[in-house]
Design brief:
The chain is an alpha/beta fold. The chain is built from eight helices and eleven strands. It has one domain: Rossmann fold (3-Layer(aba) Sandwich), CATH 3.40.50.
Length: 230
């Protein structure tokens, strides 16, 4: 049921959930996410400013609460598909419920698909002008396959944001974090260096790799052409 425009109902529902994203739902209601509104603004600029977003099709892989899906729409994307599996199915995160609540409150036309990264393919999803692969790579047990699958969906540009490590090494390399070694999170598996990410993107057919910029983690824009470069 849509609650768009019902300020009191939205405010009460928001309080029932734990949020990772701070999303402005209007009428003074902002979800109390771990990420601050200031950090979101910084990240949105790093992710989206280099791209001519108006009229594009976008897929947001690992959408969680949906801030970046909503931001893509706000910046003029014609079609946005939000996907997730882990966070949307997590008993404590209740990510799909939070996404649906925020989408309803904002009244946005955004498609959804519950699908895990190893299942992504053009045959299942089609292809998109812009692919957002934000905060996903280092969580994957097989990050190279995950990156390849994300790349296969990208007609024009793939945006990758990831934790990085081993910057003292000039050769492409990636470190494995056993157990909960990185930030006490057992889902944090890998720390690639910048050279590793760039070389992987090159092997996946991108003709231009911009970055990294930092937001605070490394952000790369991998382009098939310069059609959408702002």
């Amino acid at each position: 049921m849509s609650i768009h425009g019902d300020t009191k109902a939205i405010a009460e529902r928001v309080k029932q959930f734990w949020w990772y994203h701070s999303i402005d739902l209007g009428n003074g209601i902002v979800t109390r996410g771990i990420k601050s509104p200031e950090l979101h603004a910084q990240e949105a600029a790093a992710f989206f400013d280099p791209i001519r977003m108006k009229g594009t099709s976008v897929v947001d892989i690992g959408a969680w609460n949906g801030f970046y899906s909503f931001e893509a729409k706000r910046r003029g994307a014609k079609r946005v598909l939000a996907t997730d599996s882990y966070c949307w199915n997590h008993e404590q995160f209740r990510g799909r419920e939070t996404f649906d609540l925020a989408r309803s409150a904002l009244g946005l036309d955004i498609e959804t698909l519950t699908i895990d990264v190893p299942e992504l393919s053009p045959e299942k999803l089609g292809t998109f002008d812009v692919v957002l692969f934000l905060g996903v790579l280092y969580h994957l047990f097989d990050p190279i396959d995950g990156l390849r699958r994300a790349a296969s969906l990208a007609k024009e540009v793939l945006v990758v944001e990831t934790h990085t490590d081993l910057q003292e090494l000039k050769r492409p390399a990636m470190v494995l974090y056993p157990g909960s070694e990185l930030n006490n999170d057992p889902t944090n598996w890998w720390g690639p260096n910048v050279a590793c990410v760039k070389e992987l993107l090159k092997t996946m057919g991108f003709v231009r790799i911009d970055g990294p910029t930092f937001s605070p983690r490394a952000v790369f824009h991998a382009w098939r052409s310069t059609k959408l470069v702002s």
